[in-house]
Write a structure and sequence with these properties.
The chain has about 260 residues and is α/β, with parallel strands linked by helices. It has 10 helices and 8 strands. It has 3 domains: about 40 residues, no CATH class; about 150 residues, 3-Layer(aba) Sandwich (Rossmann fold), CATH 3.40.50.1980; about 40 residues, no CATH class. Helix 2 packs across helix 3, helix 2 packs across helix 5 and helix 9 runs antiparallel to helix 10. About 5% of the residues have low confidence.
């Protein structure tokens, strides 16, 4: 059973044991998953949360700054990255961030995150913006440009993508989905977020006919001999020897020293 939200392993005696834990949480939830991984399965180890925004000259500097700090307030280790094709826009965003950090409501946590993990990159063109964003492979990626669909067709590495000025990470976290469990720390290079497939388990089986044994046993025996796995090779040879008349021993390459 894969439970959606983690709970401590000392469950009551009447509950059924979990085999998988999944769901969002803070650093304590992540640590619980880390400690129990192997004893139970998990969705992924996530955190700290992060945001990357691609913005051009059409973007609203105040909105971009707000979205950067909105994620930075998660914690002092949360990266906030701006990638812009416009130096002027980048300068205006930085000025807005500095202005907003004058407020005590954001200065403590978000201010430290911005100071230690904030990044502003001005790139030559859209292609370079794509390359840099894919390299970062952020958990949350916003595109605030005149042509967000162009980026949609080309971006590859992200946890969740927010297109246009009306789409912000808080909407995805709290209301519009698709989920709140996303890869962080560049894990989006090789995996997506939590999805229904995580609650399914894939199993396989094999069944061979005599003709199947005739076809695969010689190759399997040869490979096993090359790997010095004599016992493995014997499992193939013995099955071939037990087939009807077509399956003579000479059908299988002899092991060295036979």
């Amino acid at each position: 059973m894969c439970r959606r939200s983690p709970r401590w392993r000392s469950a009551s005696a009447t509950s059924h044991p979990s085999t998988c834990w999944s769901g969002p949480g803070n650093a304590y939830v992540a640590e619980a998953k880390r400690q129990l991984y192997g004893t139970v399965g998990i969705d992924l180890l996530a955190g700290p949360t992060e945001i990357c925004i691609i913005a051009d000259e059409s973007a609203d500097p105040a909105l971009v700054a707000t979205d950067l700090l909105g994620q930075a307030e998660h914690g002092p280790t949360s990266p906030a990255i701006l990638i812009s094709t416009s130096g002027e826009l980048a300068r205006r965003v930085v000025a807005e961030v500095d202005r907003m950090l004058e407020s005590p409501a954001t200065a403590d946590v978000a201010g430290r995150a911005w100071r230690d993990h904030g990044t502003v990159a001005v790139v030559e063109d859209r292609g370079e913006a794509i390359r840099l964003a894919d390299e970062h492979a952020p958990e949350h990626l916003e595109v605030q440009t005149v042509d967000p669909d162009w980026y949609l067709d080309r971006l590859r590495n992200y946890g969740s993508l927010f297109l246009g000025r009306e789409a912000t990470v808080a909407y995805g976290d709290k209301a519009v989905g698709t989920n709140h469990v996303l890869p962080t720390a560049r894990a989006a290079r090789y995996t997506g977020g939590l999805w229904v497939g995580k609650f399914l388990k894939t199993v396989t089986y094999q069944r061979l006919t005599p003709e199947g044994t005739r076809r695969v046993a010689p190759s399997v025996a040869a490979i096993c001999d090359a790997e010095l796995f004599a016992g493995h090779a014997l499992t193939a040879r013995m099955r071939l020897e037990r087939l009807p008349e077509r399956g003579h021993r000479q059908d299988v390459p002899a092991a060295a020293g036979d």
